[in-house]
Amino acid sequence: MDGYCLRAMALTADVWVVSRRARGQALDAQMPNAWLDPSRFVAERTLQFLEASPQGKLPACVVSLPDWGDALSGAELTGLKELRGAHLILVDGDAEAKLGFVELQNFYRLRIKSVVYHSSYKTHAAAEIVINHRSRVSRSLSAFRLFSRRLALICNRRAARPLRPLPFSQSSDTRCETQAIATLDASGVPEKFDRYMVFEGTRQLPPVRNTHDDIGRYRHGRYSIWEGKLCFAATDPTRLFRIPYWIVENAPRNRHLLQYHPIDNSGATVLAPGLDHLFAADRAGADGAALKPGDVVALVTHALPPGGAERQWVYLALGLKRAGYDVRFIVYRQLSGVEAHYVHLLDDAGIPVISLDGVSFRPVHGTIEGNPLLWSVCKARLVDDLRYLCRMTDLLQGLAAKAVYVQLDEPNVYVGLAALIAGVPHIVPSFRNTNPSNFAYGRPWYRDAYRLIARSPRVKLSGNSELGNADYATWMGIDPRHVACIPNAVDEEIFPRPAADAVEAARARLGIAAGDKVIIGVFRLSNEKNPLCFLRTVEEAARRIEALRVLIVGVGPLGDALAREVKDRGLAEVVTFLGRRDDVNVLMSLADLLLLTSDHEGLPNVVLEAQLMGLPVVATDVGGTREAVEPGISGLICPPDDSDALAAACIEILGDPARARAMAREGEAFIRRGFSLATMTQRYVDLSRCALLARPT
After folding, report:
1. Among 10, 180, 351, 526, which has the minimal tally of Cβ within 10 Å of its Cβ?
2. Longest Cα pair distance anywhere in the chain, in angstroms?
3. What is the DSSP track for 151-209?
4. In the chain, pLDDT over 70 holds for what percent of residues?
5. Which domains does the chain have, with CATH numbers?
6. pLDDT tens digits for 137-151?
């Protein structure tokens, strides 16, 4: 027969690998090892199944299943009894996109025990769906019990009105959406397909992560619960307006009643084999001498563009230099153009800046052969870029640094490993936001690498906000006390109050009249800062405040799109884009209010700097923002993506000059009390001298 099918090969009686092949195509010799390919986490989960399997190794046993989207026939069901009770390992890279209602129904009818696959969205574990089997009557009774525990009912039929259902709308021919559902928890990670299970009548929809585009493209019962809103496609278009949809929580008390439920395998991740001896010297107490002035210390980040995290690392370098340390600043990108924004501050202080790209070093194979620890890490394939790891190891060994301070996820894991291998006594990685699984840049191996380096007493984890630190600790599976909170700083020597004539000159250049009210936004023009919410907010404020001017300082990938949006909204006379600037302190001093509408933050520098300049703040309640302002005293905090609340807060402050002046005074005093550069620097130095609790095992 022509076409494609799914071919399943037995590893043991209850562990099978599944791959899509042309019908009649002979399986290659690598098929039994295909489970090694999708991701290391799928491989680890497969190994756990194999180790737990009571069955011996079988000779090659291959069966054929229907292709993706094809329902299982009665004859096929009879001929596939070998799969009863099996764990299926889906090894094709697109398996996640193919898993719909039909596929899970096929696996249910075959009495498959669980399905494991690689998820492009799950960065630290294999995705797995457990299938609960019961009779048709028992399944109906379970659905009835779950329905009585529902959190929401979604239906457009008039007959359902006594149950007070929520309506849905069709955003395309195949995709439907609801408004935010108040009974669902919208805090934390925005996607909650695995926390809330969705039913179409008595049919449970497949709990597989999907983008909204995937739902429209692949249909067949796919769904997403994003920021409390349900987006879904019907299992069959004829059921859409006939059958109600409802939501129940994937809670322990409900799990045995569900037909399918995803499980979290994040705790099952193990360290790459053979790496324990990285810490033999650490366990023997080789912590190195205490850090003291005159010692060589290295600060590492990716580059020096005009960002808050980069500014903080420059501040720390200057603080350590003033404290008497021999400071070297390392970046791994070429420093030119926008990537060199802060270089002049380091040059002026006499701090050498080393670009890893321009460093002469031994050949990679020579570096590996000369270092057994590095060779072990390379053999374990723990990281993506061995060349980067080898170059950094070589550089740190040559510098003989007593301490390494590094920030941001990619530098943290590479430099953390390199510093351990190079024998650096004190290593301090720093978190600047929430954990990388919340962002597109995250790599599947980051969590393993973080857990590995955190085992060493030479490593002291840090972060700039309590909320961000707690998020990382949960993601890594460690005690939050293992992460020290060191807030950001503002240096008055680098970010001083400008002279009055400089402020007036800037007002004149920008055409700002004496009676104008000025809102300033200083942020990267990228999605995590939610610039569209910023524009919606100032658009609403402009309707209520005469002579409002809005200044946006920053660059980023959304610059052109935002410029078009400003024009389309009729805000061209209100909003001025200023790009990358060196006079942010001057611009803040001529403004009346700072507005920050981010969806994600660590502890935002711009909020600290604005208050130091005597500027009230209106900001979203994300990350460490609440830690950077005194809510109600030096600024107002609003829910994220709530432009109405943000606009109301702006109008409230701008409409009450006396309160605005009081906020300005309180904000400046707040920053001077707790966010000085000397305080931050001493906290980082002290961190190398203390023992933190609850290291991962």
Report:
1. 180
2. 87
3. SEEE---GGGGGG-PBP-EESSSS-EEEEE-TTS--SSSSB-TTTEEEEETTEEPP---
4. 87
5. 4-131 (no CATH), 136-268 (no CATH), 276-489+680-687 (3.40.50.2000), 500-675 (3.40.50.2000)
6. 898 899 999 999 999
